[in-house]
Write a structure and sequence with these properties.
Blueprint lengths: L2 H59 L1 E16 L10 H21 L3 E6 L2 E6 L8 H24 L6 E16 L5 E5 L1 H12 L4 E5 H7 L3 E11 L3 E11 L14 H26 L9 H17 L4 H13 L11 H12 L7 H12 L10 H10 L8 H14 L6 H14 L5 H19 L6
Parallel strand pairs: 4-6
Antiparallel strand pairs: 1-3, 1-4, 2-3, 4-5, 6-8, 7-8
């Protein structure tokens, strides 16, 4: 091989060697890039799995509910326009914190749920998470106390000078609520009712409580309300609005319209009774033994209806009617625990549940005594006990006595307390013959039919 050919070969070898080194470096770089991509891909997979897990948790913790009657309140505190003009703006910010703290305490007092604070606007709602029929009254009561608190606060701080001004708008309607959280539950509500309440707050005047006509119709028996004007609402038309001035004089202490008196609490209790009744009837439906064919939900409703009817006829007061209806509601709820001492068990349940609904210890004592008076044979010691005893045995003088009596027989038979219908009819004749209604109202309504009932049962008895 000549020298020229040798040089060309060496150059080719050198070029190939150089290219191999470059390819080797590229290969190493590709391996490194691949490793980085694999590592990044694994990180993305981990993040994706984590996001899926967190999303799953959110889906588990968040749920949406529909509430048909919620009262939404927007309260706007105005005072920030004064901050820039004063040298003590830090003090005013501290005051705002104090005010919001007291506002939170007030809405808790009235069982109103704080939804959120948006800047200087407080949004809350009554009727969630526990549905109730009293939430319009409770929200308006809370609104008045918010206003009264701020007025008193300003007077103590600055006498006649006013820094903070409050505007409140309230509306009652359906909302959808999103409930989230596990350890700490929070709520968010949406719907036309929320938007309407916000717009009413915008129309409200300083230091006033403005409500929609929907709320007005539900609270007008408690508060002094003055017509304010109309609010145009898309898809709804004009909504009338009313300013709430305060409690009606006859429902407030000293007639000042700020603090509710005993008459207010009784009137409120008569409305709240619907909520208690729903709880107890639901408990009876779920927990009563199947063999209670007579002591069922229908019997409880009959007694509640009858005590009110006889109570009004006998001239009972509003408070006495509330006590009677509550006793009637609880008088058989003890059957969910025990049959033979159900009166005692019902009284215990009343003592356990009624304090949460604002009943006084004295009222609860009277209710429990009335419940215990229904134990057979009845021995009432006062008018209210006479009324519930007459109501409890109202069926003795009704036209449907025979079929109702037969359900009681089936109930007793299922517990091996009596075996034959013929024996039951004989027992009923003896019981009715010795029974007498206590109140003039029950005697005039039912006593006249009892002799007919005896004759009807006697015709069914056979000689054995």
């Amino acid at each position: 091989m000549d020298s020229r050919s040798k040089d060309q070969l060496l150059k080719r070898i050198a070029r190939i060697t150089r290219e191999n080194k470059e390819l080797e470096e590229q290969m190493k770089k590709l391996v490194r890039d691949k490793d980085r991509l694999v590592d990044t891909n694994e990180k993305y997979k981990l993040l994706l799995e984590r996001n899926k897990l967190e999303t799953s948790k959110v889906e588990e913790e968040e749920r949406s509910l529909r509430f048909n009657m919620v009262t939404v309140l927007f309260a706007d505190i105005r005072g920030f326009s004064n901050l820039a003009e004063r040298t003590d703006s830090a003090q005013l910010m501290d005051e705002l914190d104090e005010i919001f703290y007291e506002f939170d305490e007030i809405i808790k007092k009235y069982h109103v749920e704080k939804i959120r604070t948006i800047g200087d606007t407080l949004m809350c709602a009554g009727g969630i998470p526990s549905k109730n029929i009293t939430n319009p009254v409770e929200v308006v009561m809370a609104a008045l106390e918010l206003r009264n608190f701020l007025e008193d606060y300003e007077t103590k701080k600055r006498d006649s000078e006013r820094i903070w001004k409050l505007k409140i708008g309230i509306h009652t309607g359906p909302v959808s609520a999103t409930i989230s959280g596990k350890n700490k539950i929070s709520y968010d509500i949406k719907g036309r009712a929320v938007n309407t309440a916000s717009r009413i707050e915008a129309e409200s005047e300083e230091n006033s409580v403005l409500i929609s006509v929907m709320t007005y119709e539900l609270v007008k028996e408690f508060f002094i309300c003055e017509y304010f004007g109309k609010l145009p609402v898309k898809y709804t038309g004009n909504i009338q609005m009313f300013q709430v001035k305060g409690l009606l004089p006859e429902l407030s202490l000293d007639g000042l319209g700020k603090v509710p008196n005993a008459a207010f609490k009784i009137k409120f209790g008569l409305i709240q009774f619907t909520d208690i009744q729903e709880v107890i009837l639901d408990k009876l439906e779920r927990e009563l033994p199947e063999h209670l064919y007579y002591h069922n939900i229908k019997h409880t409703v009959d007694v509640v209806t009858e005590v009110e009817l006889i109570g009004w006829a006998e001239g009972c007061s509003d408070e006495e009617i509330l006590i009677l209806k509550t006793a009637g509601l609880f008088h058989d709820v003890g059957h969910t625990i025990s049959y033979d001492d159900h009166e005692h068990q019902g009284a215990l349940l009343a003592r356990e549940m009624l304090p949460a609904y604002g009943y006084t210890p004295e009222q609860i004592d009277r209710i429990c005594q009335i419940i215990l008076s229904t134990k057979l044979p009845p021995r009432p010691t006062n008018l209210l006990e006479e009324i519930i005893c007459d109501s409890d045995l109202d069926y003795l003088g009704r036209s449907d006595f025979i079929p109702v009596s037969n359900t009681l027989f089936e109930e007793m038979k299922a517990q091996n307390k009596i075996a034959k219908l013929n024996d039951w009819n004989k027992l009923q004749v003896r019981f009715i013959s010795g029974h007498q209604y206590f109140t003039p109202t029950a005697r005039s309504l039912r006593e006249v039919n009892k002799q007919l009932q005896i004759e009807r049962i006697q015709s069914l008895i056979t000689d054995e």
